[in-house]
Amino acid sequence: MPATIRLQGEDFDAAAEAALLTRGRTDIGAVVTFTGICRGSEAGAPVAAMTLEHYPGMADAEIARHVAEAEARWPLLGVTVIHRYGRMVPGENIVLVVTAASHRGDAFAAAEFLMDYLKTRAPFWKQEERPDGTSWVDAKATDDTAADRWTKPPQAAKPRQAAE
What we know:
By secondary structure, the protein is of the alpha+beta class. It has helices at residues 14-22, 58-73, 104-120, 141-148, and strands at 4-8, 30-37, 41-42, 45-46, 49-54, 76-84, 86-88, 93-101, 124-130, 133-136.
């Protein structure tokens, strides 16, 4: 099943998207969904709204490239990525990532990989509206650190000790 990637101004229904991905499928054993939601505060300061801008065409292609990388890393049976753009107020959905696999470990890892990418490398620009004005949001070092773990070679697993 080909991945679904949509950039849209309209809201989405996470449950409906997950159901659409799994409808009629008996090979899927795990579905992980992540929904990012606009917060009403950041670092203790109130946020009235957030506006996301993107570069049409480039954003879609970049997300598709990273979805393909996730599909190459893990045996996924389905992927949906929906990212909104435009103005959103606190409580509104921003992004949805749904990954499906035979086993939960693959679905969780792929969802984390995709969210780490979307947070740090996807071509979106975020502006926050606060009572004292608007400002563009800078990248966070913690998000970069989380994303960097996917570029390092995997560590060899340590053998488990036999129970005594």
